Amino acid sequence: MSxxxxxxxxxxxxxxxxxxxxxxxxLSQFPADDVSIWQKENVFLGCHAQWITPESVGEVLPYxxxxxxxxxxADAIIDNRAExxxxxxVDKAKRKGMxxxxxxxxxxxxxxxxxxxxxxxxxxxxxxxxREQKLFGARxxxxxxxxxxxxxxxxxxxCTTIEPLLELSFTRKKLNEAWLAxxxxxxxxxxxxxxxxxxxxxxxxxxxxxSFSLVKGEIELKKxxxxxxKEALKLDSxxxxxxxxxxxxxxxxxxxxRTYRNVGSQLSGGLDSGSVVGFAVKELKKKDKMLYTxxxxxxxxxxxxxxxxxxxxxxPAVKQTVEYVGGIDDYYADFEGRSSFxxxxxxxxxxxxxxxxxxxxFWLSGMFEKAQEKDVGIxxxxxxGNFTVSWGTPIxxxxxxxxxxxxxxxxxxxxxxxxxxxxARSYLFPVIAKTAFPFHKRKTAGTKLINSEFADKxxxxxxxxxxxxxxxxxxxxxxxxQQRRILFEDILPWNAGNTLDCKLSLRYSLWKRDPTNxxxxxxxxxxxxEEQYTQNGLDRALxxxxxxxxxxxxxxxNQRTRGVQAADWIHRMIPDWDSFVNEAKKLTMDPxxxxxxxxELLAKAIAKAEEGPQQEYRGxxxxxxxxxxxxxxxxxxxx
Length: 639
What we know:
The chain is of the alpha/beta class. The chain is globular, with a radius of gyration of 25 Å.
């Protein structure tokens, strides 16, 4: 909803107008409904505001309360307003128009540094406590809003984006090799295991689920909560679990519809975004409002090469959901002319750092563009559904049953699953057995993107090991339940993806929001017995049962086919293939770049790319080259 900024001179020197105006001028590249500052001697706070919710229209930010001697600047949408009003005993006459920033300030007045524990929503804020001479702030549990900071002996500064901090006279731009080492060493989509780091040495960020305090030049970062609930949920029946889930999920969706503008949603042909749309329309119909949906489809000249159980063009499935749910104005876009290669510079500008989501990059920002055209204020999505509402992988669950010698139940489930999936039990059983009793460790030799000498210099694999990632660059345990716990409790993997969402939201003056990652939904889902997610041959059983009469059965119960996004990413790069390969070749002649990269692996990937684009080969080599190009362009541009 806003970009926030601030400077605090620890040496008591006044903040110069050049420094404060410089930060705010840098933010002028983004649209704004209001731009304001608050300054008192050695403290400056700024807000580049975008009005999304009804309460934000005309909101005063930064806001100063002279009675309490507190100032706040905030980038926040708070969802549990009703509960907070009651807990804080806010006069009922003042509740409707009270901005979220003032609600945060009241929470701080009551609970002090424990205040973030009571906030539900997407937020990043900073409070200047004049009496305590303290800066206090926090970032929401999933990091949906970014907040970077820089500290030296005399100066502290913070901002939603990185560039304004780098332009201050007291900061220095230098590559953070520790960040780069983690980015290169981790083979999956996670950027780093240390969410505090950025690619710039000395420039850090408040990690998700953390509060921040600065007193007398000393910073304290504190994790203020956990995704995992203290107790497992035990109910009397399947129906009771479904009813309880529907209640918490509907509340999470409803809370994210709060805008005076239009409501939109990304929509694929599957369950996650489909469930978000289904629950959203139920509420919007009460208000006589339409839901605008935006779906990606491949270009008309794309020839489908995928196997029968996959479909890259999800338009027919999306249409089934749209027609069944009703109340939807649906849009489809193929973003012709865009590719992962052509979008590199754009995304480096948006992200302000290298990124890994290259296969989907050509349509992610396009969704925001289309939503902006329809005056959408809130753009819903179901990005985290695989880990929460639609969790449930039969192979892994059946492997647990097999290891615990629950033969009867194992046989019944396997029989039902094979019938629903259309796969023979004789095919499934060896896969389950291998999952239950893995005998062979993955081979990793020769597949590491990071230069081994660089890795040893930084000690990156020793650090990754502390977070459950082995020298393959991915989880040391094949157990998905352990992986899930590590993701939610330790690594905070949503940080990179949500950085993109935050900065695209800022660029297009709208807010992307995900009910599947609402902390109430996450805690509910993590409290359930595994049988709620895999039962009677159904994978993702909870969401399938909970969307009865909300989604069409053709979507809700489909287990045989699955949409595959970005199947056309190589096809889109064909016009620029020679440029792509030639740029990659130049990397092999740059010794400074090869100091970071496994040169042998790079050469093999280039050789594969020189054979020409092969759509059926959706793999490792092309993605590896793209990651190298992204990292190199970032380093070349900034250092």
